[in-house]
Amino acid sequence: MIYLESFIFPSEDIEYRFILDEKRTCFESFYPFKVLSKNRFERIDFEPITILYGGNGCGKSTALNVIAEKIGVNRDSIFNKSNFYLDYVDLCEIHIEEEIPEDSRIITSDDVFDYMLNVRNINEGIDLKREELFGDYLDTKYSRFQMRSLEDYEQLKKVNCAKSTTQSKYIRHNLMDNVREYSNGENAFRYFFEKIGENGLYILDEPENSLSPKRQIELIKYIEEAARFLNCQFIISTHSPFMLGMKGAKIYDLDEDPVNVKRWTELETVRTYYEFFKDREEEFN
User: Fold this and answer.
1) Residue-level pLDDT at 20
2) Which candidate, 92, 94, 80, places its Cα nearest to that of 31?
3) What are 255-278's pLDDT values in tens digits?
4) Does residue 152 register a pLDDT over 60?
5) What is the residue-wise DSSP string for the chain?
6) How far apart, in whole angstroms, are the C-alpha atoms of residue 252 and residue 266?
7) Which CATH number fits domain 4-110+187-284: 1.10.10, 3.40.50, 3.40.1350, 1.10.357?
8) What does the pLDDT look like over 157-187, one tens digit per residue?
9) Residue ranges per domain, the chain?
10) pTM of whole model > 0.85?
11) How many Å apart are CA 253 and CA 262, to the nearest integer?
């Protein structure tokens, strides 16, 4: 099933004109401007299963969040929006083939993580709630702390952590310090089955996180069947060789300049795995 037919990001020329016309000069970053355009990624034409592949920093998560914001699908976790985020989204174009169902959603790693915390009650005894940590992160990051003695060392580490990482990673780090059991692939796996139903457009940001290879393969089968029999469309970012091998998936390689469509067996990550096991083939016999 195809609900979203195509999505067009601002070209490098459009971005340049916007930034040139922008009168404010107090911003060091125009994110998400200049992220996708650096490899001339301007258009996606979707299939029932479309995958964005690439290494860290290639912009695949940015692309998914922009798409989700533009089409207005549901989301659970809070995510950071820059000062120019909505300006960028407004410049994007969409082409709809069928009306996007109301239950459509984006699922991120933070969603799965929060679900694992809630279901297993592993945040029992944690003093700081997530909302409090959001405020703590902002207060710490923008504080003017100066170390005056060795007693201030722990606070200095906290300030440096806040300034050198994202809000999401800061919160996860501080929660995990108090969590007895973090990894639970079973609960992560259940989350996808609870959220993915019939007749929906689902945007999945690196769904392989927290899933073992066996669970990834089971999720692949479910996605393939949902796309084929349950009128679902999927847009997925991943670098998992298992997820990349989904039948019928259209794959955009965001590491290429310009970005283009490739077969999964041509992708660098898959080739690396293949060559590694091929060199050790005799050990399996």
Assistant:
1) 82
2) 80
3) 999 999 999 999 999 999 999 999
4) no
5) --SEEEEEPPPHHHHHHHHHH------S--TTTTTSGGGT--EEE--SEEEEE--TTSSHHHHHHHHHHHHT-B--S-----TTHHHHHHH-EEEESSPPPTT-EEE-HHHHHHHHHHHHTTTTT-SS-HHHHHHHHHHHHT------SGGGHHHHHHHHHHHHS-HHHHHHHHHHTT-S----HHHHHHHHHHH--SSEEEEEESTTTT--HHHHHHHHHHHHHHHHHS-EEEEEE---HHHHT-TT-EEEETTSSS-EEE-GGGSHHHHHHHHHHHHTGGGG-
6) 11
7) 3.40.50
8) 566 665 556 555 555 555 544 444 444 677 7
9) 4-110+187-284, 123-176
10) no
11) 7
Tokens of 218: 């089971």
